[in-house]
Design brief:
294 residues, alpha/beta, four-stranded antiparallel sheet
């Protein structure tokens, strides 16, 4: 197994990631440079595969452009996929405390299938089993957790819990959580066939009914947004989404943002669709927005 990595300047890393995901839609590993070391101020993106399966180095260099610092390749042990599992642990997302009387909202435990179920959580918890397969997300990334926190808060405030459109569903964790919380119907969209297959299978495993379709945000027509739109995407795709939505949803939960990008994205949706910021969640360098037209 080969690990092919590119190290890029931190200031341009987000744009580089968007380009790399076109070459490696199954996802990339991200490693930030450590302060006080020669890698400070850089980000390394890596993909894994057998010889002949990886993008050509020339393709990577063209995608990275002037942000490039270094390209490297290395062999990894054949059991790398088992080691990868060690990084995916159960995630607990508690329902918001102190909310006013309203619809009951469970807390969520999101776990990969190789982790055992937790029998001691109690009645106020629901488990979601997510196998990422070749798709993005088991719930552990800060962007997904922030979106889940906002989704729980929205569920507690919205007794109707109407239709949901999840754009860029990845492994389907947000769409499945929405359906478990009582939102319906739920339509999940993703450009990558691997994500569509993973989301559909994860929904089946969790016993929830959602519809999953393949859609290219940049070229295909978006379905009507419904009452709630979920969009855990990178900044360029969120801006593209704002341009392509013809009618604003009542609520938009937008993740995938670095904290210093949140104001810009909120402003784009405000100017284009009249959505205003209702709430913001931040963890480390990441942020998620709850925008509403109500």
């Amino acid at each position: 197994m080969i690990r092919l990595a590119v190290r890029v300047r931190e200031a341009q890393a987000e744009l580089v990631l968007a380009e790399l995901l076109e070459l490696a839609p199954s996802g990339v590993e991200e490693v930030a440079g450590e302060a006080g070391t020669p890698t400070a101020g850089t980000v390394e993106y890596a993909v894994y595969g057998a010889p002949g399966e990886l993008p050509a180095i020339g393709q990577l260099q063209a995608a990275v452009g002037g942000a490039l610092v270094e390209v490297s390749t290395s062999e990894v042990p054949d059991d790398w996929h088992e080691r990868w599992r060690e990084f995916h642990r159960p995630v607990l997302v508690a329902a918001p405390a102190g909310r006013p009387a309203g619809p009951a909202v469970p807390s969520l435990r999101v776990r990969p299938p190789w982790e055992p179920a937790e029998a001691t959580l109690g009645d106020g918890w629901r488990e979601i089993v997510i196998d990422p397969g070749m798709a993005f997300g088991t719930g552990g990334h800060a962007t997904t957790r922030l979106c889940l926190e906002l989704l729980l808060e929205l569920a507690g405030a919205d007794a109707a819990r109407g239709p949901v459109l999840d754009v860029g569903t990845g492994s389907g964790v947000l769409a499945i959580a929405a359906r478990m919380l009582g939102f319906q119907p739920v339509l999940a969209l993703d450009n990558e066939p691997e994500s569509v297959a993973a989301a559909a299978e994860n929904a089946r495993v969790n016993g929830v009914a959602i519809e999953v379709r393949r859609l290219d945000l940049r070229h295909d027509e978006l379905p009507p947004p419904g009452a709630v739109m979920l969009a855990n995407l990178l900044r360029p795709l969120l801006i593209e989404l704002a341009r392509r939505i013809e009618r604003a949803p009542a609520h938009l939960l937008a993740g995938g943002l670095l904290s210093d990008q949140a104001d810009e994205v909120a402003d784009v949706f405000a100017r284009r669709l009249g959505l205003r910021e209702h709430a913001r969640r931040e963890r480390g360098e990441w942020a998620a927005l709850w925008l509403t037209g109500a």
